[in-house]
Each structure stands twice: as C-alpha cells, then as structure tokens.
Amino acid sequence: MSRLVEFVWSWVVVPFGLIGTGFYATLVTFLGRNDPGSPRVEAALRSWSNMWMRMTKIDLHVEGGEDLDPSTSYVVVPNHLSNYDIMLCFLAVPVPIRFLAKKELFKYPLLSQAMRAIGCVEVDRAARSQAVETINRQAALVRSRNHSLLVYAEGTRSRDGELKPFKKGAFAIASGSGMPIVPVGIIGSRDIVPPGTIKIKRHQTVTVRIGTPITDTAGRPITDLRDETRAVVEKLISQP
Q1: Are 159 and 80 in contact (CB under 8 A)?
Q2: For 117-128, what is each residue's pLDDT tens digit?
Q3: What is the DSSP string of 118-145?
Q4: pTM of the predicted protein model
Q5: CB atoms within 10 A of CB 9
Q6: Which pLDDT score is estimated for 7?
Q7: Distances from the Cα of 30 to the Cαs of 109, 110, 121, in angstroms?
Q8: The Cα angle at residue 158 between residues 90 and 173, in degrees rounded to 5
Q9: How far apart are CA 191 and CA 51, in angstroms?
Q10: Rounded to an integer, what distance in angstroms lies between the CA atom of residue 20 and that of residue 89?
Q11: Is the pLDDT of residue 180 over 50?
Q12: Residue 1: is its pLDDT beyond 50?
C-alpha cells in the first residue's frame, strides 16, 4: 500500500510543484529585471527551494560554509545526483549563487525568462570555442554583481551515485578570473527521485557538506585545479 500511496502522491505533488515554480519564475523575472542583485531575488529563490523541500518533507543537514564571504564571488562545484540539487544548493550555500545551465533549459518560456533575468549562465555544448567566450563573458557579469557561479563539473547527473570525472569548464573560469573554488559534497539527494522513475520519495535525509575554499586559483593549470577539487568533493561525500 505504501508504494501505491507514494506513486499517487507523486502524481499530485508534481503538478502543484510546477504551478509553484511558474509563480516563482514570474516573480523572479519581475524582481530580477529591476535589480538582479536585489535581496528580494535571493529571498524568492530560497522560498521556491523551500517549497519543494516542504512538499517532499526533506530533512536537510548543512555542514560547513561558515568561512564563506558573501562579498566574494566563488566558483561553487558540487557533485550532481538529482534535479533537487539546485534547490539544495540555494538553501545550503550561504552566498548568492547563479548557475551554469545547458542551452536546452532556456527553451522553457517562464524558466528561461527567470534565469536570464537573474543572470544565470547559458552554455551551448555544441558551440565549443564560441561557448567558452560566451561563458567567460557571462561569468564576468556574475562576478561584477558579487554573485557566485555554481557549476556541476560532472556535466550531468550521476545515474549510479558514483562521482564521475570532472570537466574543465569550471576550473578554466576559476584559473582565468582568480575566483576561489568552493567544493561541495551532496549526499542522499539521489534517493528523492531514483533514476529511471518519476516517483518522488518523501522523508529523505540529505546532507550538504561545504568544503574550505581553494583560494590559490589565479593562473594555475586547469587540470591541477580540477583534480584537487574533485579529490576534495570525493572526500566530502565519503565521510560517514
């Protein structure tokens, strides 16, 4: 019976969640067009994230992050297990973040307007050389607003829960700009919506561990930054 309840509940909560997302996307678009750095934008993003946490009854635990400076722009690099990860990061990371998103996400009208209004970075994976120039330009805009840029360095969600190889993009940004890197380990979010199913599991416990910033990034070899950051993220998610 519990499986049936979870299945029916999933079909109820998803439409309500999408309606709520449409509302917050409209609100964020209005607020962001007037002032992308407004505290009201951050409050709306956190409220949207809390909406999903409450509906799914997620028990979120946050460890670390006390040494992050809200006036500093970071490149935030978490592992990626679930569509819930962006909401978890909005709530757990104690600095204003914008995220790097694939071009396909900008095809959805309300969502695309909201992401552009608040300064999320659009990346076209097919246009390699042109994409680098576009990402660097948009990342500079994020930094000028004292926002931090969240990048899922694995490139996509891990289907089996294992940490995948990191791509170089986030570390090219950090090396070129001198922005510190914040490694983040997310544990447990994969269980909310297991791969291959649309069923949402309630009452899951998720831990977000925020590592110590890697500050010596300016001009460093990209592969060195990538390997160091991945090692820290792997350690964060491996701790009991």
Answers
A1: no
A2: 998 888 776 656
A3: HTPEEE-TTSHHHHHHHHHHHHHHHHHT
A4: 0.91
A5: 16
A6: 67
A7: 14, 11, 18
A8: 60
A9: 18
A10: 19
A11: yes
A12: no
Q: How far apart are CA 89 and CA 1, in angstroms?
A: 33
What's the length of the chain? Answer: 240
Per the prediction, the chain carries an average pLDDT of 89
Angle at 203 between CA 199 and CA 88, to 5 degrees: 85
State the pLDDT at residue 130: 57
Single-letter amino acid, residue 153: A
% of the chain with per-residue pLDDT over 90 = 61
Reading the block at residue 96, the tokens are 């204003």
Amino acid (1-letter code) at residue 2? S
How crowded is the C-beta side of 101, counted as CA atoms within 13 Å?
21
pLDDT digits (tens, 9 = 90+) for 182-217: 999 999 999 998 877 777 888 899 999 999 999 999
Question: Helix (H, G, I), strand (E, B), or coil: what is residue 75?
Answer: strand
In 10 A of CB 54, how many CB atoms? 9
The answer to whether the CB of 128 falls within 8 A of the CB of 183 is: no
**CB contact at 8 A, 61 and 207:** yes
- What is the pLDDT at residue 175? 94
Walk me through the domains of the chain, giving residue ranges and CATH numbers: 2-238 (3.40.1130)
Of the candidates 91, 88, 101, 66, the residue with the CA atom closest to the CA atom of residue 182: 66
CA dihedral 11, 17, 18, 20 (to 10 degrees): 150
Residue that the structure tokens 């509940």 belong to: 9
Catalogue the long-range contacts made by 220-224 (C-beta closer than 8 Å, 24 or more residues apart): 220/175, 221/175, 222/168, 222/171, 222/172, 222/175, 223/168, 223/171
